[in-house]
Design brief:
The structure holds 3 protein chains of 3 kinds.
Chain A lengths: L15 H14 L5 H18 L1 H4 L36 H37 L1 H16 L2 H11 L4 H28 L2 H8 L4 H37 L10 H10 L8 H29 L6
Chain B lengths: L8 E13 L4 H6 L4 E13 L3 E5 L6 H8 L7 E6 L2 E2 L5 H10 E4 L13 H11 L4 H14 L18 H13 L5 E5 L7 H18 L2 E6 L2 H7 L2 E6 L2 E7 H6 L4 H9 L39 H5 L5 E4 L2 E3 L6
Parallel strand pairs in B: 3-8, 3-9, 6-7, 7-8
Antiparallel strand pairs in B: 1-2, 1-4, 4-5, 9-10, 10-12, 11-12
Helix pairs in contact in B: 4-6, 5-6, 6-7
Chain C lengths: L7 E12 L2 E13 L4 E5 L6 H9 L6 E10 L2 E2 L5 H4 L7 E4 L13 H12 L4 H14 L16 H13 L5 E5 L7 H18 L2 E6 L2 H7 L2 E6 L2 E7 H6 L4 H9 L47 E4 L2 E3 L7 H8 L2 H4 L5
Parallel strand pairs in C: 3-8, 3-9, 6-7, 7-8
Antiparallel strand pairs in C: 1-2, 1-4, 4-5, 9-10, 10-12, 11-12
Helix pairs in contact in C: 3-4, 4-5, 9-10
Classes of the chains: A mainly alpha, B alpha/beta, C alpha/beta.
Chain lengths: 306, 331, 340
């Protein structure tokens, strides 16, 4: 085909925003093939909405001690029209606690996951690509972090600083990053040898650019994967901390509910509506996280399918 | 464009060596030995502006290792390389950046040479972005480069991802990326070995054309003699890390002087039923880059080896104005 | 005296792959014979179906592939429908397979000698003493030092591994060997030695070989017959000399001109622009039509393999004009279109 004298081509690439939205849309559409991942996404969306709309959805203040019209304490009421899940020993509305607890769980979960993923990814990138002394030092730090027993450390941290949600997040971030870090590092080690990385070098890219512009997009899926797993861990940890009584006592969370129920001997009294819902919610959210990660795993690493 | 005496020398390689440490067996660790692979063991040659040189040899000869130091992608163990008079080892910062604009690489595996997450446009624009070329000039340079590789219908390619293109198209994109800043020199490392045969011819023709229109200096690393003959006027044959023959391609192919080159030429099959099936003038045995033979490295496979070959490593000596051979037989 | 019957006869072989995107018709009606004691080259580019067809003969095809039609007749029996278990007695003993990468037939954690012995003892019923002797004999036959039987595969070079894979294949004296790109990854000197080995074994043992390759120079060097495949179909077949000097299908002509030939100095290589068709929904016309410089409206109907010479077949409506087409095919202008 002869090359005619074409006018100077102005290739209008769609503006950045459009492309990002397209990418996002594709990202969300991906698990459409996997019913489990789809279920996971739906569950997450529901919980996120609940957390955002907690004030609207809750019927009462979660910590308010309620009284009946007769003036008596509204204690241990069974599920009914006024109190969808009944009340606690102290007359607090369980349903509202559950709804507000969603916030705590998700905030801790997401914050911790973001922290873990960011630290882990950056460490993995730097360590894997630069190698040498940097790699050795960072990996030894990772070993130390892995060697520290998880729950006791978070407890000690919470006890040392004040027991609060953010200290739980801090504890998780400090100890959970090595898992992500190591996996990212090994990915980077193999990516480092790929021709396109050498191509980046030969076309003049500097080290930072290679790390964050060339290599990072290729490991981001893995980071996100580990992120969704970290969310599950964080929520479980937060619940455990609260259950053990080291959590903040002024915020309601699912773990707090469990601790409260336990301390009030809800099991022996058969107050199922008190402790089953928060426990179930924890399980459901954590499982949803794993389902999503599994669904994306199959998309990003299709070889697993065969 | 051949190497004419008096033409400018662009690249000087002097005594280049590259050794790699090898993982050791427990016996060697205990004995304190550190075996090393002498991938490139003392190579010297000059490249003139506009020359297309083929570096020919089999696996283990060091040819693949030769390419990277020429582009300052690997540090040599010994020896110097000069580009346009400047010692590569001394280049840093802005001078290094300037060098990178002038020296490029074409990769062996087109499926791996482009970032799977970048569109073709972005991959092509990378050298321009790094060189801080203003946006309005970028499109023009890209278009020129794409035209040179005969992918003129750029709208078809810019927004696609590597997995959407065929091997032949990808390799053209890789070549276009190398040409986008109009370099003076490029190294092509087995540029067509991973492509289907019917596609290779297209890429090779494009490379010939680029050579003719841009007057680039090029180094083609290949094990395929037919390819080297098609694109290079000069051929350097390597064996176990050293140069054994260096001369005009036609002479090397028609009248090879070194026993290894002779065996290599005879070994290449041709698509004709009528071809020589005589045994090759080379004995079995696999070259071991860890323990090369003393003296001439080729002597344990050479049918003409004699006592001097074990004692003394032959030096590259001219047998014709532009033709050097390293063999005691020619003294 | 009539020629002996072919050792293998393939008729109308059809193999499909089930994938997420649909069914890939990898081999769509292939028919050819392997004469006893001959080396037959199965030539084509990636995706043409040659490896699939070759593997199907041994019954070792991927889980998502299935033979949906045709017959593979070996020694009077149709192997095409046989289950994995029923094929077992034939494998190694009658028909042996050398995969593309020798590391696919050699287990890296066992010594090479042990692997040869395993085949001899477990599958061949040899006793230990005879097996040892036979292993040594096999290594000598393929030009490997008998002492290397004690080594692990990673201690072998590429060429040696390939020879070891050949030794393994020959262990139980099969009558037919199927070699999938046996020399592609090898250096040219070793390649030559391995090809010479195939030829010597053919002569010495009366072996029949199906050699799958993309390299027609290899075919010219070592094969007696050649079968050219394109997009799942056979486009030309016949004696090597006839097919290479008088190609009668445009694809074969194009392939020949795209190959650098060391004996021809100067000259231009002529690429075949375009790509093979998608085999999920292959065109109903001649499959080469889209890339063929000689195509005509009648090519909308797929041509059958018709005789164009002595035992020489081609699937092209214009086979009668082959001589003229060959002449045109030599010039680059004939093939010019948009790039592949």
């Amino acid at each position: 085909m002869a090359v005619t004298s074409e006018p100077r081509i102005a290739v209008r690439r769609p503006p950045r925003l459009r492309r990002m939205l397209d990418g996002l849309r594709r990202l969300i559409a991906l698990p459409a093939h996997d019913p489990f991942a789809l279920a996971g996404l739906v569950i997450y969306t529901v919980f996120v909405l609940v957390a955002i709309l907690a004030d609207v959805l809750a019927t009462h203040d979660p910590l308010e001690i309620l009284f009946l019209e007769s003036g008596r304490l509204a204690r241990s009421l069974p599920a009914g029209a006024d109190h969808f899940l009944g009340t606690t020993n102290l007359g607090r509305d369980i349903y509202s606690q559950l709804v507000h607890g969603t916030r705590g769980a998700l905030i801790v979960g997401l914050a911790a996951a973001i922290a873990v993923v960011t630290v882990g990814t950056v460490v993995g990138l730097v360590s894997g690509y630069l190698g040498g002394m940097v790699d050795t030092v960072l990996m030894r730090l990772a070993d130390i972090a892995l060697g520290i027993p998880f729950l006791p450390f978070v407890i000690v941290l919470a006890a040392f600083l004040e027991p609060s949600m953010w200290n739980v997040v801090l504890g998780i971030a400090l100890l959970l990053w090595p898992n992500t870090g190591r996996v990212i590092r090994s990915q980077v080690l193999s990516l480092r040898e790929r021709s396109f990385v050498e191509a980046a070098k030969v076309t003049g890219s500097g080290t930072l650019r290679i790390l964050f512009v060339h290599i990072a997009p290729n490991i981001l899926p893995l980071s996100l994967l580990y992120g969704s797993i970290a969310v599950g861990w964080a929520i479980l940890t937060e619940a455990a901390i609260n259950f053990l009584g080291f959590g903040a006592s002024d915020a309601v969370s699912w773990g707090y509910m469990l601790q409260d129920a336990y301390a009030s001997q809800a099991l022996s009294r058969g107050h199922y509506f008190w402790f089953v819902p928060p426990g179930l919610c924890i399980v459901v959210v954590v499982v949803a996280g794993f389902l999503i990660s599994r669904g994306y795993e199959e998309v990003f690493f299709p070889k697993l399918r065969e | 464009m051949g190497a004419v005496p008096g033409m400018t020398t662009l690249i000087e390689v002097d005594g280049l060596k590259k050794h790699f440490p090898v993982s050791r067996a427990i016996g060697e660790v205990l004995a304190g030995r550190r075996p090393v692979v002498h991938a490139v063991d003392g190579v010297s040659f000059n490249l003139h502006q506009g020359e297309s040189v083929g570096i020919l040899g089999e696996s283990g000869c060091g040819k693949t290792t030769m390419g990277r130091p020429l582009l300052k992608l690997i540090t040599p163990t010994a020896g110097t390389i000069r580009f346009d008079g400047a010692d590569l080892a001394a280049l840093k910062g802005p001078e290094l950046q300037a060098f990178r604009k002038q020296a490029q690489l074409v990769f062996q595996n087109p499926f791996d040479a482009l970032n799977p997450r970048f569109t073709i446009y972005r991959a092509l624009a990378e050298p321009l972005v790094n060189a801080r070329v203003p946006r309005d000039e970028q499109d023009e340079l890209l278009l020129t480069a794409m035209r040179r590789v005969h992918l003129s219908d750029v709208g078809q390619y810019y927004d696609k991802f590597p997995h959407q293109l065929s091997g032949g198209q990808l390799q053209r994109v890789v070549l276009a990326r190398a040409l986008v800043l109009v370099p003076r020199f490029f190294v092509a490392d087995e540029p067509v070995s991973m492509l289907d045969v019917s596609v290779r011819a297209g890429i090779l023709n494009v490379m010939r054309e680029v050579r003719d229109t841009l007057g680039l200096t090029a180094v083609y690393i290949s094990h395929d003699l037919a390819l080297v003959r098609y694109v290079c006027e000069r051929t350097i044959t390597m064996y176990l890390g050293i140069v054994v023959e260096d001369g005009p391609t036609e002479d090397v192919v028609r009248r090879p002087q070194h026993p290894y080159t002779q065996a290599l030429v005879k070994a290449v099959p041709v698509p004709h039923v009528d071809q020589s099936r005589e045994p090759l003038p080379i004995t079995g045995g696999v070259p071991d880059a860890r323990n090369p033979a003393s003296g001439c490295r080729f002597r344990d496979r050479c049918p003409y080896a004699f006592d001097r070959c074990a004692e003394e490593r032959p030096a590259l000596k001219p047998v014709a104005p532009n033709h050097r051979v390293a063999c005691h037989l020619l003294d | 005296m009539p020629p002996p019957p072919p050792i293998l006869s393939i008729r109308g072989l059809q193999i499909h792959y089930r994938t997420d995107r649909g069914v890939i018709r990898a081999v769509d009606g292939a028919s050819f014979d392997v004469p006893a004691g001959a080396v037959v080259g199965l030539v084509g580019e990636s995706g043409c179906g040659k490896t699939t067809a070759a593997r199907a003969i041994t019954g070792v095809i991927p889980a998502n592939a299935s033979v949906v039609g045709g017959e593979v007749v070996y020694d009077g029996r149709d192997l095409a429908g046989l289950s994995h278990r029923k094929m077992a007695p034939l494998r190694w003993r009658e028909i042996a397979f050398i995969p593309q990468s020798a590391m696919n037939s050699l287990d890296p954690v066992y010594r090479v000698g042990a692997q040869v012995l395993e085949v001899l003892v477990d599958r061949g019923g040899y006793d230990r003493k005879r097996a040892d002797a036979r292993a040594a004999e096999l290594f000598q036959m393929v030009g490997l030092d008998v002492k290397r039987l004690r080594d692990y595969p990673h201690q072998f070079s590429g060429g040696m591994r390939q020879r070891a894979a050949i030794a393994l294949a020959l262990a139980l004296e099969p009558r037919l060997i199927i070699a999938d790109e046996p020399v592609t990854a090898l250096d040219v000197v070793v390649q030559r030695q391995v090809l010479d080995l195939f030829k010597a074994l053919q002569r010495r043992l009366g072996l029949s070989v199906i050699l799958v390759t993309h390299d027609i120079s290899v075919v010219a060097y070592v094969c007696d017959q050649v079968v050219v495949m394109y997009a799942g179909k056979i486009v030309e077949s016949g004696p090597v000399e006839a097919v290479l000097t008088r190609p009668s299908h445009p694809y074969t002509m194009g392939l020949y001109n795209a190959f650098p030939d060391l004996q021809r100095s100067g000259g231009t290589l002529v690429p075949i622009d375009g790509s093979p068709p998608d085999l999920i929904d292959p065109p109903k016309s001649c499959r080469f039509q889209a890339r063929c410089p000689f195509q005509q409206p009648r090519c909308d109907a797929p041509p059958d393999l018709e005789p164009v010479g002595d035992d020489h077949y081609a699937a092209c409506w214009r086979a009668d004009d082959a001589a003229e087409l060959r002449r045109l095919a030599e010039s680059p202008a004939t093939w010019e279109r948009s790039p592949a």
